[in-house]
Amino acid sequence: MAVKKTPQIVKKLLAQHRARIAWIDDILRIKATVALENQAEHVRNHSVEYYEGMAWGANAVIEEVLSAHNCYHGFQNVGPIMLGVRKVNGPSLVREDENEAYTFPIVRHTDPTYQSWRRLYLEAA
């Protein structure tokens, strides 16, 4: 069976997935840069591994949805997700979802910002 275009409902789910990964990425940035006493309770009470596990779970779910709709087009490993940024030095992917623009700098496994769970799933028009 040939891989087909990404249905609209799956595109919405991909947008939600990007927002969730951006949220997790932001939480991990806060954990790394903000003093423990200044972190929100939900950030302070969970480990980095907890949030990374959440990201892996989100990735697994979206891959199942893409496979079930026969529209899996692969993914690109990306660096820290930046909201509202339009230009990044080097190659990047930009997606706009419901009034938010995400910029995803493309990274390789040798990049110091690389995290294997930080993925952008690709879609076909």
Structural commentary:
- By secondary structure, the protein is of the alpha+beta class.
- The protein has one domain (8-121).
- It is built from three helices and five strands; from the N terminus they run H-H-H-E-E-E-E-E.
- The chain has helices spanning 8-33, 41-44, 48-68, and strands at residues 75-77, 82-83, 92-97, 100-105, 119-121.
- The strands form two sheets. The protein has a three-stranded antiparallel beta sheet with strand order 2-4-3, with helices on one face. It has a two-stranded antiparallel ribbon with strand order 1-5.
- Helix 1 runs antiparallel to helix 3 (48-68).
Derived from helix and strand composition plus strand pairing, the structural class reads: alpha+beta
Q: What oligomeric state is this?
A: single chain
Number of helices: 3
Number of spatially distinct domains? 1
Q: What is the global morphology?
A: elongated
Strand order of the largest sheet: 2-4-3
Q: What proportion of the residues is helical, as a percent range?
A: 40-55%
Spans of at least 5 consecutive residues with low confidence: none
Q: Beta fraction of the residues?
A: 15-25%
Pattern of helices and strands: HHHEEEEE
**Number of strand segments:** 5
Give the distance, in angstroms, between the N- and C-terminal Cα atoms: 18 Å
Radius of gyration: 15 Å
Query: What integer is the average pLDDT?
Result: 83
- Report the sheet with the most strands, covering strand number, pairing sense and barrel closure: 3 strands, antiparallel
